[in-house]
Amino acid sequence: xxxxxxxxxxxxxxxxxxxxxxxxxxxxxxxxxxxxxxxxxxxxxxxxxxxxxxxxxxxxxxxxxxxxxxxxxxxxxxxxxxxxxxxxxxxxxxxxxxxxxxxxxxxxxxxxxxxxxxxxxxxxxxxxxxxxxxxxxxxxxxxxxxxxxxxxxxxxxxxxxxxxxxxxxxxxxxxxxxxxxxxxxxxxxxxxxxxxxxxxxxxxxxxxxxxxxxxxxxxxxxxxxxxxxxxxxxxxxxxxxxxxxxxxxxxxxxxxxxxxxxxxxxxxxxxxxxxxxxxxxxxxxxxxxxxxxxxxxxxxxxxxxxxxxxxxxxxxxxxxxxxxxxxxxxxxxxxxxxxxxxxxxxxxxxxxxxxxxxxxxxxxxxxxxxxxxxxxxxxxxxxxxxxxxxxxxxxxxxxxxxxxxxxxxxxxxxxxxxxxxxxxxxxxxxxxxxxxxxxxxxxxxxxxxxxxxxxxxxxxxxxxx
Length: 465
Prior knowledge:
This protein has about 475 residues and is of the alpha+beta class. It is about 50% helix and about 10% strand.
C-alpha cells in the first residue's frame, strides 16, 4: 500500500485557510459595526428592523427624543409670515421635542397609526423662537404665545394653570438650549453610531458643514428685518394719522364761521340763561314760554302733572328738535302726551350750566329761609329775588305764577305745594360745590321753593306788573 501524503497536506492547508477567512470575516464585521456617521446624515439613523424604521419615518421626528410626551392643549394660530390670521381655537395633541413642537389632531399613537404616506406634520421650529405669557391676545386665562423669526405666531392655552406652566417652562428651556447650542448635536464632534454601512471612516474638517436649513445668523437677520419693517411701517402709519389730524385741526373753520353759515345752530339746552336770552332778544327763554302755554292750555288737570315722568326717548327727540329748529309747534300730535313737555321743561332747567338761582345766591337764600319771623323772612326773600339778573328774575316770576295756577287745579291733578317743591327744589337751585351735607341742602332747596310758591304774590306782585 502506498501512502498519499499529498491528500493530507492540502486538507490541512484548506482548514488553515478556512480558519483564517473566518477570523478575517469576524474582524471585518466588527469594523463594519463601528462607523463614524457622516455630518450630513446625523439625523438619519438606520435601524436593523424595518418595522421600527417605518414607524420612525412616519412620525417625522427621527432622532428626536420627546421632551414632553404629549398632552391635549388648546391651540390657535394667529399669524403666518407676519400676516394676521383669524383666531380659531382647537383642541390639539402637543408633543415637545428638543427643537420643535409637533401638533396632532389626536393622541400621537393614534395619529401615527392613521397617517397617510407623504403626510406633512404640523409643527413649530423653536430655533430663536420667543415664548411669553400674554393677556392681550385672548380673553382666555393661562395663555402663552410662541413667535418664530419667520413671523408665525401661536397661542397655547390650558384650563389648569399648573399644566400650561409646565409647558411654558419646558418650551422655554428648549428654546434657551437651542440658542446656546446645547440643544442639538455638535458638528465639530462626530458621534459613533452602529451601522451596516461599508463606507470608509471619514474625518471631520475644521469648519462645520452647512446644514440644510438656513443658517441661524440668516434667520436672526430675517427676524430682525421683519420686526424693523413691521415697526417702521407701524410708526409711519401713526405719523401719517397724526399729520392728517394736525392739518384737519389747523384748517377747520371756527365755531363762529360755522354758525354764520348756518351749519351749526346755537344750542338751547345747556346754554347759560343770560346768553340764551341775549341771543333771542328776550328776558325769558322762548322754550320756557312755549312749555308753560301748552301746559296751561291742555295739562292743568292732568293727573300728576310735573310729577309723572314722560317717555324719555320722546323727550330726547324734542330736545334735539329744539336745538336744531327755531320754530317749533308743541301742539303737534307727536307731543300729545303733556308729560313729555313737562319733562322737557324740567330737563331744560336741570341742564343749565348755572341754575335759575345763581350759585352766588345759594347761601344767601339758605340764610333767609332760616329766619323765624314770617314778615322778615318774606322781605329777605323778596330783596334777594329782586337782586337777581333780569332773565333769572323774569323767568322765575313766570314759572312761579304758572305753578300757582297748577295748584288751583289740585283736586284734579292731585298736586300739592309740597309735591311741587319736591320736584322743583333740586331742579331750580343747587350749590356750586357739594361741600356740605347733600340731604340738608335738599331740605333747604325744597323749603325755599315752597316758601316762594306760597308767598308768590307778595314777592313778585301781580303777574302783569
